[in-house]
Amino acid sequence: MAKISNGKDNCNGNEKKDSFAIEEFGADRHGLLTKILTDFEDHLTEKAGHCLGYHVNLDLNHLMDLSPLLRFHINNVGDPFKDSSFSMHSKKFEVSVLDWFAQLWEIEKDECWGYVTNGGTEGNLQGLLLGMDCVIIRTLTTGEIDCNDLREKLCLNKDKPAIINLNIGTTFKGGVDNLDLVIKTLEECGFSNDRFYIHCDAALSGLISPFLEQGPMFSFKKPIGSVSVSGHKLLGSSMPCGVLMTKKKYITTISKNVEYLNTLDNTISGSRNGLASIFMWYSLNVKGRLGLQQDVKKCLMNAQYLRDRLKDAGISSMLNEMSFVVVFERPPNPEFIKYWNLSCEGNMTHVIAMPHVTVKILEDFVNDFVRERNIWYRCGRIQPPCLAEEIGTYNCCCSIHGKGSLQNGN
Amino acid sequence: MAKISNGKDNCNGNEKKDSFAIEEFGADRHGLLTKILTDFEDHLTEKAGHCLGYHVNLDLNHLMDLSPLLRFHINNVGDPFKDSSFSMHSKKFEVSVLDWFAQLWEIEKDECWGYVTNGGTEGNLQGLLLGMDCVIIRTLTTGEIDCNDLREKLCLNKDKPAIINLNIGTTFKGGVDNLDLVIKTLEECGFSNDRFYIHCDAALSGLISPFLEQGPMFSFKKPIGSVSVSGHKLLGSSMPCGVLMTKKKYITTISKNVEYLNTLDNTISGSRNGLASIFMWYSLNVKGRLGLQQDVKKCLMNAQYLRDRLKDAGISSMLNEMSFVVVFERPPNPEFIKYWNLSCEGNMTHVIAMPHVTVKILEDFVNDFVRERNIWYRCGRIQPPCLAEEIGTYNCCCSIHGKGSLQNGN
């Protein structure tokens, strides 16, 4: 596991101290600041080379073109569709980004409202507002909503309208809720269109969905109320950002006019990051629909490649349809998890085949995993965990459910 | 008013269309994108030269040094004091920024908790949480809290604990609530320390307060619970950002562990902008306490200069003690307001003497205002509005309360 030790050595310079104290520097302040920043860039470059466990695209070199904008404060305070009296804003870029998503999600420009957010969570908060009674619905092994459980809970709450938070791509398993089946369940339980509101949390898959051969997973042509997508996931951005989009008729109820800014205050935060809109606008332009489609195709293929390599090696693993997220058994070594920047839940971990993750990186990863696994489990003398409950018996390679030994595929 | 026409002509290129449609470009996509961005930079540069009405520092050239960081996605998800398993974060910079503010606001490092926010509003939401019963307290002419009204309202609500949102520098008038008087009022009404919580909204003045000759307006040595300050106001940043700081004992109640990220989720948004911490860290280092002190001194002097010039010209105006915000009569011409990027409330407007606002700009502004005012009010044959109620009779120059004519000082 030589790479892991190297990785730790390379970034130690940034991990010895908890912080870079401000004002401890003497005469050569500027030289010291430059040194800290250059070291930090090296640290980030090193980390990016083996960052597998998160839904972020790290291929961002083109965003350096936006450097000249760093000398401005750009603040899109308030409603994106109203000019605010603070003139240093980028709302034209923001509206362009929203127009692009309106077309993608099949809603007429004059029927929709939305804004560029700081990330998915803010969009979800806005989409669902706050402080409501909450009922949790069970999920299937794939991670998607269990519509039988939904039906039961709906029947118990027929007196109230239903606000439903759907996941179009869950974080951990990449599970996609079946929108058509949810709507059918609502109708069968007697909830008419005016008595339910569906918010789609499409953090990652919002930009995958339109480029699938099977057609998109959701659109405003179906009775949904709002969608939230992250800009720093598939598309990629130097900072967290995203888009929230809803139908105009919903937003008018929570808007209030703020005279001070001569604009409408209907977003969670007053001041908003104007750079985020430009970053999204630029990346959408540089890539275009064709580039995104190619990214999606490549990522789907790479995820399948990884799943196949893991299965060949007798490692319990699962890949949902139309997903980049390969779920498999959790490595028992924290150093290994840290080096490959994996994230874990219970017995599971996952690798997300984002655009910066090449076949070469995946090969290195599988080779490292198989080699280390032989040491962890003493060449099969210790049993790796059973993952049947988490990912299904079909995907489990343990001694009970699996077909082969640890050495399969080696 | 030649400048106003010029300003409009210069930026028209960016205002003719509502958006920059994505994917309408042909072969020379990159050239067109560069052209749009270069035009937008020119537009921002032009606007920055006469942007007077907002609390943002537009002197940001030094932030171009951070350009190399744009090629990374830096995301400080979750608690700043816990390493998260997503490795591309800048929490060391964030903690350095927090340490700096802990010292500034007189709280021991191991007693405080906080994070770098996307701006003041997010900090205020977090500081006060959501969904509480709300009682509005009246203000004095200066904009600060009326402690007699506070006393009355406290007496009516003795059965409940009090959560108080104090303004250390109101947006419109720069009014500063008297913290000592508020605490005294609470005590006199029978509210012991464990039955009140004070949040200080110190968006602008949080960074002015420590550098005043009279000593700071607040600190954690007094019984306050949390403070929120903006990073893009006095300090300056390419994007909205800020700091929220509270006592550790308060945050533990709302924290919950998210295994997926191996960190604590106790901020409003999950993902957070890692660039913001580096931008604040860099500016604090480049300026240092001495630089900020010099900025505060310069801005206070420039605000006084503007107030004096307006008074000399017979224009109703007010400047609170230790404030950069000069409040005066609202110009009746929307074009004038737009050109100087003023913000208005009722009969009032204000100019904020931020670091990028030089004496030369203020001179140009006063000359333009006085010249145009003679036209608007036909050399005194029409009366400008009386502002006695808004800013006090002493500050009002109207025909009833004022001493001179419009021509004073010309």
From TrEMBL, chains A, B:
Membrane-spanning residues: none
Family that this chain belongs to: Belongs to the group II decarboxylase family.
Keyword Transferase: no
Protein's name according to its UniProt entry: Histidine decarboxylase
PANTHER family attached to this UniProt entry: HISTIDINE DECARBOXYLASE, PTHR46101
Annotated organism of origin: Rehmannia glutinosa
Keyword Transferase in record: no
Any single Pfam family the record assigns to this protein: Pyridoxal_deC
SUPFAM superfamilies: PLP-dependent transferases
Cofactor(s) required for function per UniProt: pyridoxal 5'-phosphate
Swiss-Prot/TrEMBL keywords: Decarboxylase, Lyase, Pyridoxal phosphate
